[in-house]
Amino acid sequence: MTQVEHGALTSGVRGMVVTVDGWPLPGAAVTIIGITGQQLGRAAADDTGAFAMPVSAPGTATVVVAAPGVDPLARTVSIHAHGVTDLGSIVLGSARRTALPAPGLWVIDPAHTIVKAKARHLALSHVEGRFKEFSGQIRVAEPIEQSSVEVSIVAASIDTGNADRDTHLRSPDFLEVERFPELTYRSERVVRHTDERWRVDGLLTIRDITRPVALDLTYLGTGPDPWGGTRIALTATTQLARKDYEINWNMGLPGGFVLVGPTLRIDLEVQAVRQD
């Protein structure tokens, strides 16, 4: 394969090959084919998913991208006569994603699941925390839209990597964990946009205050694990307004800024194991 450094290319084609959840696909084969069927260029993605290659002729062409474990992709592109044609991110879906999870009970595996929250700090950067103790289940129904989710999170398990900050987050200024030891989420409706993109509408309770919250969910597939089980994997994200749960503590800063931003971004990475 003809390949040059991604940043060193002065004429040709470059881009990135990634999964639907943004992970690079090292070694993905990228082939450029002209309208008469001739091969104009070929390269392999590097460890970051990037590829770059000279192309023997400009004009309309087809880029074909393939990698193990994902569905191949072909799309028409227009290659510039001069300079670099940047194809951006080329997203390949898992070949296993066409199969929806089997109906039944799937229990969330805490050892391979991440529940994290991120807040704006000093109007400059972000502080991220993870909840270390939680449990939950996904009951897959047929049809899939009748499925349900239940999750319980131990409020005191919040961990931002700083003991003083974690103590403050557990205090009445924030989670008030002695009075409200759990956060809970229970779904009310599942909406399937595609086999990979879903929305879960549910009720999130924090500090005994319940508000509707929608999770934007990406289904990553299902497959066997090394311990004889079957797993599903998914990611989900949402945003919460702190004021909705009466978490209003803050500190003013010069210039009208505040110490903690009003919005929390919630990101979930979930694996669940099917129960026989």
Automatic annotation (TrEMBL):
<comment type="similarity">
    <text>Belongs to the UPF0312 family.</text>
</comment>
<feature type="domain" description="Lipid/polyisoprenoid-binding YceI-like">
    <location>
        <begin position="105"/>
        <end position="273"/>
    </location>
</feature>
<dbReference type="InterPro" id="IPR036761">
    <property type="entry name" value="TTHA0802/YceI-like_sf"/>
</dbReference>
<dbReference type="Pfam" id="PF04264">
    <property type="entry name" value="YceI"/>
</dbReference>
<dbReference type="InterPro" id="IPR008969">
    <property type="entry name" value="CarboxyPept-like_regulatory"/>
</dbReference>
<protein>
    <recommendedName>
        <fullName>Lipid/polyisoprenoid-binding YceI-like domain-containing protein</fullName>
    </recommendedName>
</protein>
<dbReference type="InterPro" id="IPR007372">
    <property type="entry name" value="Lipid/polyisoprenoid-bd_YceI"/>
</dbReference>
<dbReference type="Pfam" id="PF13620">
    <property type="entry name" value="CarboxypepD_reg"/>
</dbReference>
